[in-house]
Amino acid sequence: xxxxxxxxxxxxxxxxxxxxxxxxxxxxxxxxxxxxxxxxxxxxxxxxxxxxxxxxxxxxxxxxxxxxxxxxxxxxxxxxxxxxxxxxxxxxxxxxxxxxxxxxxxxxxxxxxxxxxxxxxxxxxxxxxxxxxxxxxxxxxxxxxxxxxxxxxxxxxxxxxxxxxxxxxxxxxxxxxxxxxxxxxxxxxxxxxxxxxxxxxxxxxxxxxxxxxxxxxxxxxxxxxxxxxxxxxxxxxxxxxxxxxxxxxxxxxxxxxxxxxxxxxxxxxxxxxxxxxxx
Length: 279
Hints:
Order of helices and strands: HHHEEEHHEE
Strand content: 5-15%
Distance between the termini: 176 Å
Structural class: alpha+beta
Number of strands: 5
Number of helices: 5
Radius of gyration: 55 Å
Helix content: 25-40%
């Protein structure tokens, strides 16, 4: 016959059975039983204080962390950019150098145009993230622009000077003018400036002759060819004695062409200014 299992009981039938958990056992679950999947006899894990998000917990720093919040010597903290911005890989800069060299010859216009084209190519190549000479290219553009503008301004000044300047062919009878070097018997004059005859002036036109083709050929071949023509144009005017005045024949060129003007002018041989009209 099978005997039912025997369970140990109190040694004394009259001693009450303890109702609480044995000493050293974990505290009971709030609802009277351990959570599902846990071992009631396992020790309770230690609890840690909760810290608000973004604040460092109290106590010693974690392992392998600098207690002063600084990066190791010689290293930048992670995520910190390099001083002066990210490093840029260099590339060959021969084209940029050539552009800058050509920019200094911008007064010839064509080198300046080539310099600007090369500089633009260098700047476009810089889109690959490498430095192809951006600073040199920008400098070449600036120098070329200044050179071209200076050349154009100088050319415009010369053109304006030529446009407003006068020559012998612009003179007419009765004009008074200033001509530097007139008293030095220069054959050609670079500038003639007509002024009122009441103002001090270098010479006065007493008569003019429009040269024919035959007269122009004679004038070029003989130093005395124009004397008779100026005598007729001025009414054979002669200076007074001891006046210091003299008659001079002027043309725009030492070998005039047909249609050029022969001006018969009076001037002071000592280079002094005339103070008023002679007629």
